Amino acid sequence: MIFTENAAERVKEIMSSDEQNAQALRVFVQGGGCHGFSYGFGFENDIADDDTVIETNEVKLVVDSMSIMYLSEATIDFVRSLEGERFTIDNPSASTSCGCGSSFSA
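Now predict its structure.
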């Protein structure tokens, strides 16, 4: 899994203004969405022993043991474009995905 410098810098900006003083950004996979699975993001203060932790520019990205099976080859990025700003997940393990990029099938 790759956690880009752009994504890490944006997370650092958000966390510096976050009143919760989160330790990491969690990315996860859950059931649902138009293709069976959907991605989720949240700020995390509790990192479990079985979480995978990826650190870029002193920013931690954590993934639970179930989600890492679907995200092991993914790239987590943050992009700015004419369409706005957003985190993206490029996941070559996904066999299909929806137009908005937030759900997929494995």
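DSSP finds two helices and nine strands in the chain.
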